């Protein structure tokens, strides 16, 4: 039987009026992905990867080496990334819609539910950006006052579309300006590659969570297999920035989305991310993978 691109989507992907066209355009790529992957993982049948128990030598500080096409030294990264997000923030949601083929909000909500976010919990969304995760969290909780978002970019915060009641704080994952033991759940959507030190950030996650609190980190990781990686790279590094050029208001938006792929490719391996979570004191550390490339890291602070 021929693989159709529709088969490739996780069962919960929305049938938006816009979904048909991009999927039709992507049909060859998605069919290629399907052939390249051994499995098609969905959240109803996630792959749970056990982290290494011996974490020595696996602790991640900087998530990737300096990407000198954009900035020269590790010390320059923070300022460069900050400027890019500030400048291009008004374009973020529009380009994210292209990258995620319109499935981003629903996908984020389904992952939060899968990770155990339930009404009554207090959630901290780190790297909140324009609020794509925070908004879905508020929807699940039914009470926006239980949601706090943190982000270092004033531009992203200014462009956030959030329900009334969400608390927003300017700050970084490595130094969260909030009290200890305050949250039941901590989320981070596609921001891990931008922190300066993963192990410091995870120590902060551990500090701000209550005992028994849950961590849910969404990331894109390169798929297994050269063909799948090449197809995803073609899409993320060339097609999305080209489309971004057409729809963006800021001239640097296309560059930021090219950088987006380069950080995915250069980022520390998932096994090391999990080892770093373990070394920060988290237990039950695991990773689920959707469609071969949407990784979710899950962990708990011990009771
Ligand atoms: C790709 S956006 C993701 C936004 C949102 N979480 C989402 O799911 O769409 C990455 C965000 O991470 C933020 N960021 C960059 N460095 C950070 C840091 N050190 N700590 C926390 N957030 C950071 C950026 O300002 C930006 O808003």
**Average pLDDT metric:** 84
**Estimated radius of gyration:** 18 Å
The top-level CATH class is Alpha Beta
Low-pLDDT parts are 1-55
What fold name goes in the CATH topology slot?
A: Rossmann fold
Q: Which CATH architecture?
A: 3-Layer(aba) Sandwich
Percent of residues in helices comes to 40-55%
SSE pattern, N- to C-terminal: HHHHHHEHEHEEHEHHHEE
The CATH superfamily turns out to be Vaccinia Virus protein VP39
Walk me through what this model shows.
By secondary structure, this protein is α/β, with parallel strands linked by helices. It has one domain (5-300): Vaccinia Virus protein VP39 (Rossmann fold, 3-Layer(aba) Sandwich). 42% of the residues lie in helices and 16% in strands. A 7-stranded mixed beta sheet has the order 3-2-1-4-5-7-6, sandwiched between helices. Strand 2, helix 8 and strand 3 form a beta-alpha-beta unit. Helix 3 packs antiparallel against helix 10, helix 6 (104-114) packs across helix 7 and helix 10 (226-247) runs antiparallel to helix 11 (253-266). The longest helix has 22 residues, at 226-247. It is globular, with a radius of gyration of 18 Å. Mean pLDDT is 84; it is low at 1-55. The protein binds S-adenosylmethionine. The site of S-adenosylmethionine (SAM) has 21 residues, from helix 4 and helix 7. S-adenosylmethionine (SAM) is lined by residues 81, 85, 96, 126-129, 132-133, 151-153, 156, 172-174, 189-191, 194-195.
């Amino acid at each position: 039987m021929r693989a159709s691109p529709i088969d490739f989507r996780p069962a919960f992907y929305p049938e938006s009026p816009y979904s048909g066209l991009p999927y039709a355009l992507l049909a060859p790529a998605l069919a290629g992905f399907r052939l390249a992957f051994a499995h098609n993982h969905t959240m109803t049948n996630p792959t749970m990867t056990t982290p290494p128990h011996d974490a020595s030598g696996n602790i991640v500080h900087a998530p990737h080496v300096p990407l000198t096409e954009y900035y020269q030294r590790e010390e320059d990264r923070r300022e460069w990334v900050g400027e890019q997000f500030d400048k291009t923030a008004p374009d973020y949601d529009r380009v994210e819609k292209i990258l995620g083929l319109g499935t981003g909000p629903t996908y984020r909500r389904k992952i939060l539910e899968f990770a155990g976010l339930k009404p009554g919990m207090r959630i901290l969304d780190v790297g909140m950006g324009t609020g794509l995760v925070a908004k879905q969290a508020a929807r699940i909780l039914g009470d926006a006052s239980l949601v706090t978002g943190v982000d270092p970019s004033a531009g992203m915060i200014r462009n956030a579309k959030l329900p009334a009641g969400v608390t927003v704080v300017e700050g970084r994952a490595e130094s969260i300006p909030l009290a200890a033991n305050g949250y039941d759940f901590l989320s981070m959507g596609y921001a891990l590659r931008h922190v300066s030190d993963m192990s410091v950030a995870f120590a902060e996650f551990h500090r701000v969570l209550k005992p028994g609190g849950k961590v849910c980190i969404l990331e894109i990781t390169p798929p297994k297999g050269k063909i799948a990686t090449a197809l995803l790279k073609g899409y993320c590094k060339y097609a999305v920035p080209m489309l971004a050029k057409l729809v963006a208001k800021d001239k640097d938006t296309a560059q930021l989305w090219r950088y987006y792929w380069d950080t995915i490719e250069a980022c520390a391996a998932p096994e090391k991310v999990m080892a770093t979570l373990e070394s920060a004191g988290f237990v039950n550390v695991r990773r689920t993978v959707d469609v071969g490339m949407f990784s979710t890291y899950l962990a708990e602070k011990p009771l």
